[in-house]
Fold this protein.
Amino acid sequence: MTEPKKLILNLFEMNTVSHITHGLWTLPGNNRHRYGELSYWTELAGILEDGGFDGVFLADVVGAYDTFRDGPETAVAEGLQIPSNDPMLVVPAMAAVTRRIGFGMTFSTSYEPPFSFARRMSTLDQLTGGRVGWNIVTSYLPNAARNFGLADEIPHDRRYEIADEFLDVVYKLWEGSWDDDAVRVDRAGGVYADPAKVRYIHHVGESFRVAGPHLCAPTPQRTPVLFQATGSPAGTAFAGRHAEVVFTGGRTADDFRRNAATMRNAAVANGRDADDIRFLVQAGVVVGRTEAEAAAKWRLYQERTSLAGILAHASVPLDLLAHPGGITVREAARRDGLDPDLLALPLDRTVAETLADFRRGREERYFVAGTPEVVADEICRWLDEDGIDGINLRQYHSFDTARDFAELVVPELRRRGRIRDGEPATLRERLFGRGPALPETHVARRYHGGANLDVPRTPLRFSQPA
Ligand SMILES: Cc1cc2nc3c(=O)[nH]c(=O)nc-3n(C[C@H](O)[C@H](O)[C@H](O)COP(=O)(O)O)c2cc1C
């Protein structure tokens, strides 16, 4: 008999008050306002470690949501991803109290240079014993661009071109700059590392110029596990080349399967195996000891959800809440002097219907509310019928969502052979069941051991000023 497919189980987090379940930070007992306390993160990490999770996944943005109502006021009032602290800085605290869980962190390739990021990530890979992943994003907020001196966002596909070069730089640093056996720690000979095995990278490209060498010695995984969320053609091509774990969703199983197949084809086109990419979906799970308990919880979460928060997060430029429910979106746009054709909204639906759609938006394919058995049945269906590999669990309540899942759902999934128990390992080993390094077919490995880095050993000078 073949073994059942195991679930990759991550908690979806963000170093902020309100990530994606707007308004719910106000629920009794919700700890979200404690995001700035180290004990919030260590307590949470303990729940995940003991509860059978594979990791925590931290989202991030580098700007405020200020499209809705022409300013950041709604976001600020609701704690909607502002205040928002750096995701990388809470990882060592969580790592110090755990041995098994992994840490996915979001970092954008659009605004900060690759050299310092590569160094921070290597530091974390080393300190965590190889338990880190990087969610590669190119960032989407106009305000983020203005925080880094740009007049507006860099056009979408151009962002992916820059990201591609960013990745080339960090691969050279992570994979190529130091040989596996460069560190000798030879006390008698007075040699810490062998200079013949450490090299410049001398990257000279369109967006970046980096001399190297990498300042960090090889870490357990070298390149962190590469995550990405995308749907666009440019993003899919990028994922086919780089990503090891892709967030993709869809409102139906067919949507998901189509997205996954496109992504796998893109991987194969880049000389990789179709199976080199794992697929995660964002999932909502509300579990109770009885159906009635689960239903009551879900009702409470719906009642407390903030529609203004959802609209601000979606950067809707039209304040639907300021219009009567009975008129169409087109009419509401006209009354506000907006060109309806520039709105990505269903123009002929009423305002009330559209708001109801926004409110319902989360009850899609990857949502389940019920008893542990019902939840486990549904998750197994997603694994076996749709072909997902794992979930990023949406939090309605911190820490109830994680604790309930750990206490009620994990034992049921474990009974069915769906939980990855076992010895501590690097994140890549945990997710792929093979070694800590990227597979040889991955584009980053072309630099391993200094291959394809045609650089002299003498100090480098760039011939042109930047
Ligand atoms: C589940 C999920 C999580 C995401 N998390 C982030 C995030 O933390 N920060 C961010 O800037 N973008 C995030 N994004 C947006 C993606 O990076 C990307 O912009 C989006 O999926 C659109 O893909 P495209 O750029 O290829 O069109 C996320 C998307 C999804 C689906």
Observations:
- Residues 59-61, 106, 137, 139-140, 229-232, 235, 247, 282 surround flavin mononucleotide (CB under 6 Å).
- The radius of gyration is 23 Å.
